[in-house]
Amino acid sequence: MKFTTLWLCAVALVAAASHAVAQPADPPACGPYRAKWESVAKGGDAAAMDGVIKVIPSLCSALADSAKARRASVASASLAPQVAALRAAIKATPEVSQRLIERYSLAVFVEAARQGDAVAANLAGKKIWSDSVNAKGAIPYFRQACLGGIASACHEGKQMMLNAYGFRDGAREAQPLMEHGCELESGWACHDAGQVLLVDGYGLKNVAKGLSLLERGCAIEPDGYAACFRLGESYAKGTNGVSRDDQRSRSYYQSGCKILTSLNQYTCKQMGFAK
User: Is the distance from CB of 82 to CB of 33 less than 8 angstroms?
Assistant: First the structure.
């Protein structure tokens, strides 16, 4: 009888936890319930001992999840006016703004990102990095922003991964982001994605796909010149899985020089391709 009563209490507590309404008091600690079950179990009740092992952990987990969900709901409601203001500012000026990063707390960016705002996710990643230099903490937000269509976030996500996991593992982890950035017409992303596939050190070698990504990047202005130069260098030296071809090398260098801005024209001048 005693065990049945305790079991019904546990079921009632789980049900109450799963149907909790806005901002009730936190559920009581699991300790007293565990103590009651263990007391019965010490009397030789095998079913009660089974409950201590199987039911109490689930009960505690349900109570904790319920409390966490209520706190998140309350926090979300309290942030709603700021999140609305942030999203309105983003809609008015979609480009990333340092002014917005300084104006709002991280919690506001995180909540807006949770609601699916890719720009807010990008800003959350930037704020995490600028405030705490926490690369691993910033990665999920840059990934969300990248997959949400912000090409620059793909590259920033890669930088975070290099910081967090080291050069080789970071590059491997970032490869899907780089390929997605290439699809978003980022010449630099095409370059980074392509070069990783051309060499042996990353364990991802795929020469045909790497060359295809570089060729796509080479056609993108204004930041595709790096992909062109990588192709020009590969054909000039006969490296990275291609045969030496001076004519093709010169053609790729020339393409890179046509879209290269004022960053560095030295190589182009040396080859007679200066603007």
Answer: no
CA dist 205 to 50, 76, 123, Å?
Answer: 53, 45, 33
Print burial letters for 113-151: b (CB count within 10 Å at least 16), e (below 16): beeebbbbbbbbbbbbbeeeeebebbbbbbbbbbbbebb
Crossing angle (nearest 10°) for helices 118-132 and 106-114: 150
pLDDT digits (tens, 9 = 90+) for 78-113: 777 777 787 787 777 756 667 787 888 888 889 889
Contact 119, 152 (CB under 8 A): no
Positive or negative, the CA dihedral 246, 248, 254, 260 is negative
Alpha helices in 43-166 (DSSP H): 46-92, 98-103, 106-114, 118-132, 135-147, 151-165
What is the 8-class DSSP label of residue 115?
Answer: T
Q: Identify the CA nearest to 54 among candidates 34, 29, 32.
A: 34
Contact assessment for residue 155 and residue 186, using Cβ atoms and an 8 Å cutoff? yes
* Total number of residues shown for the chain: 275
> What is the rounded CA–CA span in Å between residue 215 and residue 148?
24
By the 8 A CB rule, do 220 and 186 touch? Answer: yes
**Are 275 and 257 spatial neighbours (Cβ–Cβ below 8 Å)?**
yes
Q: What is the pTM of this model?
A: 0.67
Tokens of 207: 């020469």
Alpha-carbon gap, residue 93 to 162, rounded angstroms: 30
The distance in angstroms from the start CA to the end CA of the chain is 92
Helices (H), 93-134: 98-103, 106-114, 118-132
Would you say the C-alpha torsion 132, 99, 262, 224 has a positive or negative sign?
positive
Chain segment 22-47, per-residue pLDDT in tens: 433 444 556 666 666 667 667 666 66
Asked whether the beta carbons of 209 and 195 are under 8 A apart, the reply is no
